[in-house]
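User: Quick sanity check before I run a bigger batch. Here is a single chain. Can you write out its predicted 3D structure?
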Amino acid sequence: MKQFDVVVVGGGHAGTEAAAAAARRGASVALVSQSLAQIGTMSCNPSIGGLGKGHLVREVDALDGLMARAADDAAIHHRMLNRSKGLAVQGPRVQADRRLYRASIQHQLASYAKITLIEGEASALNLTSGSVASVALADGSIIGATAVVLATGTFLGGKIFRGLERAAGGRIDERPANRLGEQLRALRLPMGRLKTGTPPRLDGRTIDWGALEPQPSDTDEWRMSPMTRTPRLPQLACAITRTSAATHDIIRNGLTTSPLFGGDIEGGGPRYCPSIEDKVHRFGDRDGHQIFLEPEGLDDPWIYPNGISTSLSADVQDALVRSVAGLERAQIVQYGYAVEYDYIDPRALDHRLALAAIHGLFCAGQLNGTTGYEEAAAQGVIAGCNAAALAHDLAPMTVDRARGYIGVMIDDLVLQGVSEPYRMLTARAEYRLALRADNAEARLSGWANTLGVLTPARQAHLRQRHAMRDAARDGVQDGVDADILREIEEDRRYAPYLERQSEEIARMRRDGDVAISSDTLSLRSVPGLSTEMIERLERASPKTLDEASRVRGVTPAAVAALWLHSRKRT
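Assistant: Done. Predicted structure follows.
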C-alpha cells in the first residue's frame, strides 16, 4: 500500500487547487482522477472570473493557486465587467481556450514534485476509529492517507437528463462515482441533491455573425495574475443575440418532455444561472433573453451560447436555437443537458472545510453546495492547505470575512448552508469596499507566506512587489508596475469610506434589537438587497435586525443593508 500525507479525490478545479496547495505546504499528495487526460477540464462555460468570481480568482492567485495563471495562459477574450462602477465591484473575466486551459493546469501540476497522479475511481474511504486511514480504488488498490480531500464535483451519484433520456454520469460520456456516494450516505452524513446544466454547443461556421452585435475584447493589457509576463494570445470577439417570442413559444410547447418540469429532477438548480425553460416560465412577460456567443478556442469551431442552458429534448433544442436571430442555420454539435448530483450539507463542515463527523476528511467544490469554477478553486486551496496542516501538525488556515471573499463564501456555507447552488456575488460581502479584486495580493499573500503556502518563486515575486508598493506610497513611479500604482491610488481614494464602513459595521452589531419591516413592499425598497435575500426574509418574517441575522441564507451584507435602511427611516 502506498502512503501519502494527503489524497485528493477529483481532478477538477477544486481538486487540482487542493493538491497543489497541500504540496506547497509540504505534504506528499496523491491526486486520484477517473481520467488523467481530463484533469483541469472546463466542464461547462469556457470562461474564468466575472462579478464576485473575479475576486475569487485573484484571491486564489494571491495564495499561489493555479487558476489565474491558467486563465492568462488560455485567455482569448478579456472583459472587465462593471467597468463604469467603482473598482470594488468590478469583475475581471476572460474567455479561455479550453484545450490551453487544461494544458496549463496539467503543466503546473507537473511542476510539483510532491504530487503523484493516479488514474482510477475512488470507491470507498477506509476508516479507523472514526478517522480516515486510506482510500480504496475500484481496481482493488489501496492508498494510505493521513487526510483526504473529496472534490468530486457533479460525479457523486451523478445523473444526466435530456428530454426523456436518462443516463448515469457526472459529465457527458463520463461515468459517475456511485459507490463512494452510497458509502457517504450509509455513514449518515447530511446529504441532498442539487442540479446544474449546460447549453447546446454550436458550430461557429454555421452562425451568421454579420447579423449579430459584436462584443470585442478589452484593449487595455490587464491580467488575472501579476505573475504573468507573457504576451496575450490573439483575441477573439464574442457576439450578442436574444431569444424571441417564437423561441419562448417553442420552449413552452416543449415542456411536456422537460425533466425539470416533469418532476424527474429533485435537486434545486442555480438561481443565478437558470435554464432557459426556467427563465421563460418565471419571466414570461419578457420579450427576450440575452445570449452571449462565446468561442471555445482559437482553433475550435465550437461556440458556447451562454444564456440557454437547457435539458429539453434534442428536437426542441434544434428548434429553439434556429428561432434566434443569427442562428437560423446553426448546427448543434453537442446538445445541452442537466446533471443532478449528491452534495453534503456544508453546515457539517468547519471553517477549515473539515467534516466534523470524520476526522481527516475535507470537502471542496460542488460537493459543498456551490456552483462555479472559481468557487470550487477557492475552496480547494483552503481544503488542501488544511489537509496538509493536519498531516504535518501545522497551523490551520482560515480566511476571515473581513480579509477576503473566500472567507465570505466559506462563512456563508458553514453557518447558513444552502438550499440551491451557492454563487459568489459582491453583494454577499459587507466589507466589499476593502475587498477589491486589484488588492488581493496585498490583502492575502503576505499572510499566506507566514503560513508556508507560497512557493519560493512567489515569495521572491512578493518581496519585489512589496518594495514597489513602498516606493509608490513614497511617490515614486519609475520601476513600479502600473497595476500597483493604480492600487495605491485607489487605497488613498477609498480610505475615508473604509473608515466609515468599519464604524457602521460596529454600530450595526450593537443595534441588534432595531425593528425592521419584512413585508415584500418594504423589503424591495431597501437598496442593495437582492431578490434572493428578499425572498428569504419574506418567508422568515424577522422582526428585528438580530432575528434577520439568524435567518438561514441571509448574509451579513444583507443585514447591513437592512440596518442602513432602518437608520435612514428613523
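The chain has 17 helices and 20 strands.

User: Great, the batch can go ahead then.
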